[in-house]
Amino acid sequence: MKKSLGRRLFLGCNLVFLALLSLMCLMPILHILSISFSSGSAASAGKVLLWPVEFTPAAYQNVFGKPEYLRAFWVTIQRVVLGTAISMFLTILTAYPLSKETHQFGMRTFYAWIFVFTILFNGGLIPWYMTIKAVGLIDSIWALVLPGAVQVFNIILLLNFYRNLPKELEESSRIDGAGHFTTLWKIYAPLSLPALATTGLFTIVWHWNSWFDGMILMNHPDHYPLQTFLQSIIIKMDLRFLKSQDIELMQKLSDRTSKAAQIFVAAFPILVIYPVLQRFFIKGIVMGSVKE
Amino acid sequence: MQKIRKIGLALTLILSLGVTACSSKTADTGSAEPKAAGQPAAAKEGGVIEISTVRAQDPYLKFDEGENFDKNAVYDAYEKDIGVRIKNQWVVDGTVDRPQFQEKLKMAITTNDIPDFFPATPAQVQQLIEADMIQDLTSVYDQYASDETKEFMQKDGGLQMKSGTFDGKLMAIPQTGNPFAPQLVWVRSDWLKKLNLPEPKTMQDLMNIMEAFATKDPGGTGKSYGIALNKKFDEGALGLVGFLNGYHAYLNQWIDDGNGGLMYSDIQPQMKEALRGLQDMFKKGLIDPEFAVKDMQKESELIFSNKIGVLYGAEWTPAHLAQGAVKDGKVVQEWSVYRLPSIDGTEASTQIELGTNSYYVVSKKAKHPEALIKLLNQWIAIDNHQTTPEQKVYEFGKDLKEKGNNYWLLNPVMAFNLTSDNGDVLPKAIETKDAGLPKTKDQKTRFERAMKYVNGEDISMWWEYLISGPKGAVSNIPYLKEHNLFHQNKFYGAPTPTMVEKREISNRKRDEIFLKIIMNQVPIDEFDKFVEEWKKLGGDDITKEVNEWYAKNK
């Protein structure tokens, strides 16, 4: 079982390459982390690279003492929980009928194409905004949750998964007297746990990261989700038209350590969720695609 | 049985979702019914009129317990004092000139859902006039503006008001500001002393200083440069404008062509000379070779870490420098400030703009356009002379005293002094510690801050001392005014059609060529090619349009 030289060379190169790649992904996070733990003057003088200079947790005390930040965090948590729950519920409910054959569900192809159509075309920003405004969702948490509740990509993923489940499962549950709902919730849903975890992760990350809808649809900063709030503090001021009254504000704006701390705290939950859900992840995507 | 119950549960869930979704706040647009408002509905005496607007919530505005942007002491005071109830259609985080506000405003304009009044950029004003969405304020202003307001708004000779006037109609009220904001040169004075160098009186002096700073490395860091520049030429600090002005070249301005017309400053021979100067400096290693990819904050790292000791910047530059200059309650970098040194015998003029880039406009649908003027009257009155102690509420909120909560930011309409005598008053007041001299609110705040530094109470207020103190930034302004060393842009109209279309491209082209010349990647004569290209790229059309405007507005 001795490996040939070429093979070992390949493995070695591969290892180095992957190590470099992961290092490249890690560096920015490490950099932000060490800025957040450094003193303000060291950070603004550009002395901080990958290790905190003049270590201080002051930035984190500052962040957790900020009511706006915590409020935005809370909005995001609401949004993720509500949004993921609703979205997953709708995904399961939509994927099940669409996974049936045409002889079971006559309009299947028609409905499937309608869903696919929405992936390819959308009305654009202004109609999107006007619709949400017209149905009265503006400035409420539902504006962040409902417009994106039907994730067609997730539906397709789950649909393919259902199609690959043995038909006998459905037939036998039918024989035992189960209707469609029982079959879906008692048989299909538990079996599709890996696929659900995958689509769930997609949804969580999507909800966690979106900021644009919060900015456009919310009428009060108190209702901003975290990423919208972060975006508003990180974007730079236009200094060309600085009024003398703004000077004092500008002085505080250049607070890099606090910004870094806020970015890190915001990214942390997702960093934690990924490894936990990852074991389902690969299984979930692959399972829908391969037939035996 | 169980099955039915489960389905029932699911259905209830769905229904309750739908219900809560719909019941949660029916759209609180509060937009006025689209009634033609040709005549301002006569406000009943003593009655309260309502006007809606949109606001940006500055991160440094701190609300008192129980107050928020919709319900606060300042809004209450306006309602009580002048009978105007202000209603926020929406509020965003940040400031008016940031993308958050601009995106949302753009959306409101596109969907024709604008509030009664709001602040707009010059380009938006133009767009709103073309779309016929805002109303003519001429008669309302005449009728309701107080004599004080009328005088106040004309203090700059009427230019700013004129910029809000289109075809003789006052369509937009400028948020006035003081245009006299000079560029100055900032030099590390502790290094000057260390290397025994004279103060920079001429450009040659400054060149010598930069060269000495770069070669003798007074910061002891091993790698120093002469001057700090950043990728944005027109940035308020670390920009290029001050240097160009030293060569009598001006960035992005319209200047007298000597024949009664206007010409564009970027393509003049003075600009070529200034670029030649920069190229020479680059060759000598006085400029950080990476400046073209660094923004102001990034390039500033070199200043804070003692590698650069010269930069150009506006009067507020010390507030930026303080990040590196004050450490642990001690001043570790000493700076001094000088007027722009000139390349020849003629003194350098510092280029300035109109002084405003934001205008209040009133929607066609608004029923009470006069409310805007009333708000303006009240702001001008309370900002310039407070007659009763209760009026402090507009500045500090219900407790009537300074708590650092920036309550003045709540005022929905603001206009700032078009001239300022800070330069005459503050340096003298701070030198003699005479608290009787500062008169305006701004002067008093600045005086107090500088005094904290002078008395050693708060060393971090160092920056205010360098701005307002003796030999500080503003102390140069009286001299500049007296000797007519402010160079005003002669064009202050809304962007012309070709400008809107081509400006973006031609500016990018300019930045690219200028950077290449400065970084010695192309010879200086490339500038002549740029001039030709600019003319072909719509420059000639723009010049024509600007001159047409100039003929009308001279």
UniProtKB/TrEMBL annotation, chain A:
<keyword id="KW-0812">Transmembrane</keyword>
<feature type="transmembrane region" description="Helical">
    <location>
        <begin position="110"/>
        <end position="129"/>
    </location>
</feature>
<dbReference type="InterPro" id="IPR000515">
    <property type="entry name" value="MetI-like"/>
</dbReference>
<feature type="transmembrane region" description="Helical">
    <location>
        <begin position="183"/>
        <end position="208"/>
    </location>
</feature>
<dbReference type="Pfam" id="PF00528">
    <property type="entry name" value="BPD_transp_1"/>
</dbReference>
<comment type="similarity">
    <text>Belongs to the binding-protein-dependent transport system permease family.</text>
</comment>
<feature type="transmembrane region" description="Helical">
    <location>
        <begin position="260"/>
        <end position="277"/>
    </location>
</feature>
<keyword id="KW-1003">Cell membrane</keyword>
<feature type="domain" description="ABC transmembrane type-1">
    <location>
        <begin position="73"/>
        <end position="274"/>
    </location>
</feature>
<feature type="transmembrane region" description="Helical">
    <location>
        <begin position="141"/>
        <end position="162"/>
    </location>
</feature>
<keyword id="KW-1133">Transmembrane helix</keyword>
<keyword id="KW-0472">Membrane</keyword>
<dbReference type="InterPro" id="IPR035906">
    <property type="entry name" value="MetI-like_sf"/>
</dbReference>
<feature type="transmembrane region" description="Helical">
    <location>
        <begin position="72"/>
        <end position="98"/>
    </location>
</feature>
<protein>
    <submittedName>
        <fullName>Protein LplC</fullName>
    </submittedName>
</protein>
<keyword id="KW-0813">Transport</keyword>
From TrEMBL, chain B:
<keyword id="KW-0732">Signal</keyword>
<dbReference type="InterPro" id="IPR050490">
    <property type="entry name" value="Bact_solute-bd_prot1"/>
</dbReference>
<feature type="signal peptide">
    <location>
        <begin position="1"/>
        <end position="21"/>
    </location>
</feature>
<protein>
    <submittedName>
        <fullName>Lipoprotein LipO</fullName>
    </submittedName>
</protein>
<keyword id="KW-0449">Lipoprotein</keyword>
